[in-house]
Design a protein that fits this description.
It is a single chain. The protein is an alpha/beta fold and 492 residues long. It has three domains: 191 residues, FAD/NAD(P)-binding domain (3-Layer(bba) Sandwich); 115 residues, FAD/NAD(P)-binding domain, CATH 3.50.50; 118 residues, Enolase-like, domain 1 (2-Layer Sandwich), CATH 3.30.390. 27% of the residues lie in helices and 28% in strands. The protein has twelve helices and 25 strands. It is globular. The protein starts with 5 loop residues before the first strand and ends with a strand.
Length: 492
């Protein structure tokens, strides 16, 4: 960084959104300052997407090796937790090395003159067009014409509960606070809570309890998805406390005594339990503290930066854009990257097409795996959208028969005229089945398009095609003959 340099763009945050924005701005020949106080990649790599997914894969490998229903008898295999953690760190380190290499390349002027300067430290606005970076006590001012705020999020705190990093931890700490606890209580049965429940139950060393206020886990998903995951959880020994909340917590003799307040027909009861660790997993909040957004004219509230509904990433300040977890929408790494590229193209006059949030894909790393795109039945009903849904059991899909994994299902949701609305897949390789439908939803595709697509055989995607044919009345399996395998539901 050269003293007195004024940049075309200053990016606050070096996570998924920040890196994507820097690359796109460099493509366009712009000068960029990328401000990041920590390791590159953010929650997309560290203490988040990549680290937890690596841990999930290792846990699933371990659980499969111990199975006794595959023609061999698995044993209680030795578990070297330090070696497991080394594998996680290796995966994250390899991803970070790729980002470091890319930034080193972007530091050199590109064919169109673009350049990215990396500035290590936490930045905050001190004026409309100036950010001050605290680089280990040295204050560095950065002037820019435009800004992108994408500093990510942090775990949501629970009022009245202190996080000490040893007994009570968050998702930012759970992977680095020692080996698997003997007993783990997880507060929150959303994506993060259910994912870590899957991981620790998979390694077979931890009795896991899930505590959640909702009447079922994954309350944002369709009931059949939640039910399938619940059955699997219960089969692996995970205990779910429904309509419950944490009611007191104290450390006694190296253990944690917790109260679980549960709503019953006659009122409320409190059950006292002992565990070794408590994981708070009640969501995440934008990490906007201390950014000085008001000095730049950026409006924000408890949910995050208020972004334009029409232009997605624009803020109340005409020279400031926002992307990723800092805005009040979906907190996903792929969405953050998409928003960041959109923001850069918008701020430099390329008039990018609108972001189709309804076509965004999600993977839940559970047991079984869950993948989704677009609307589910629950959301369609909430929005008043008329639909038809076809559900095909994995017991009717030959790839699942071959994998000896027939629990779960494929569910396709479409408008009455055949236009695709969404897809839910529950079972092995679920994530490999959703991308084609995501593309079709974005482009207004129909169930006829899916019917006429040649799918590989045998593959889990054939379940998607069979669901489309079920809605078209052309299914290989007649609902009247196979009511336990296929069904059609409709909105009222």
């Amino acid at each position: 960084m050269t003293s007195g340099t004024r940049y075309d763009l200053c990016i606050l945050g070096g996570g998924a959104a920040g890196i994507a924005a820097a690359v796109r701005a460099h493509d366009l020949g712009k000068s960029v300052a990328l401000v990041e106080p920590g390791r590159l990649g953010g929650a997309g790599v560290w203490n988040g997407a990549l680290s937890s997914k690596t841990l999930w894969h290792l846990a699933m490998d371990y659980a499969r090796a111990r199975r006794a229903d595959r023609g061999w008898r698995g044993a209680d295999l030795d578990l070297d937790w330090s070696a497991v953690c080394a594998q996680v760190q290796a995966a994250c380190g390899e991803a970070e090395a790729l980002l470091e290499r890319q930034l080193a390349h972007l530091a050199r002027p590109g064919p169109r003159g673009g350049r990215v300067d990396r500035v290590r430290g936490r930045g905050r606005f001190v004026g409309p067009h100036t950010v001050e970076v605290d680089a280990r006590g040295k204050l560095i001012p950065i002037d820019a014409d435009r800004f992108l705020v994408c500093v990510g999020s942090r775990p949501r705190p629970l009022e009245g509960v202190a996080v000490d990093g040893t007994y009570v931890v968050t998702s930012d700490q759970i992977e680095s606070c020692g080996g698997p606890p003997r007993r783990l209580a997880i507060v929150g049965a959303g994506v993060v809570g259910c994912e870590y429940a899957t991981v620790f139950a998979g390694f077979g060393r931890t009795a896991v309890e899930l505590i959640d206020r909702a009447p079922r886990i994954l309350p944002f998903e369709d009931e059949d998805v939640s039910a399938a995951v619940t059955r699997s959880f219960e089969a692996t020994g995970i205990h779910v406390h429904r309509t419950s909340r944490l009611a007191g917590l104290r450390v006694i003799d190296g253990e944690i005594e917790i109260g679980v307040r549960r709503t019953v027909d006659t009122g409320e009861v409190v059950e006292v339990r002992r565990v070794d660790r408590v994981l708070l997993a009640i969501g995440r909040v934008p990490a906007l503290d201390g950014l000085g957004l008001e000095l730049a004219g950026v409006t924000h509230d408890a949910r995050g930066i208020v972004a334009s509904r029409e232009h997605h990433t624009r803020t109340s300040a005409p020279h400031v854009w926002a992307a990723g977890d800092v805005t009040a929408d979906v907190m996903l790494a792929n969405v953050a990257e998409l928003e960041a590229r959109h923001a850069v193209e918008d701020m430099f006059g390329l008039a990018p097409p609108s972001i189709h949030y309804e076509a965004q894909s999600t993977i839940l790393f559970l047991r079984p795996e869950v993948a989704s795109v677009g609307y589910g039945e629950q959301l369609a009903r909430e929005r008043g959208i008329h639909y038809r849904a076809a559900t095909v059991s994995n017991a009717a899909i030959r790839r699942n028969l071959a994998m000896r994994a027939t629990d779960g299902f494929v569910k396709l949701i479409a408008r009455p005229d055949g236009r695709l609305l969404g897809l839910r897949v529950v079972g092995p390789q679920a994530s490999s089945a959703i991308q084609g439908v995501a593309l079709l939803i974005e482009r207004g595709g129909t169930i006829e398009d899916l019917d006429h697509t040649v799918h590989p055989h045998p593959a889990v995607t054939e379940g998607v095609q069979e669901a489309a044919r079920l809605l078209l009345g052309r299914s290989l399996y007649a609902p009247a003959a196979f009511p336990e395998l296929v069904k059609i539901t409709e909105s009222s």
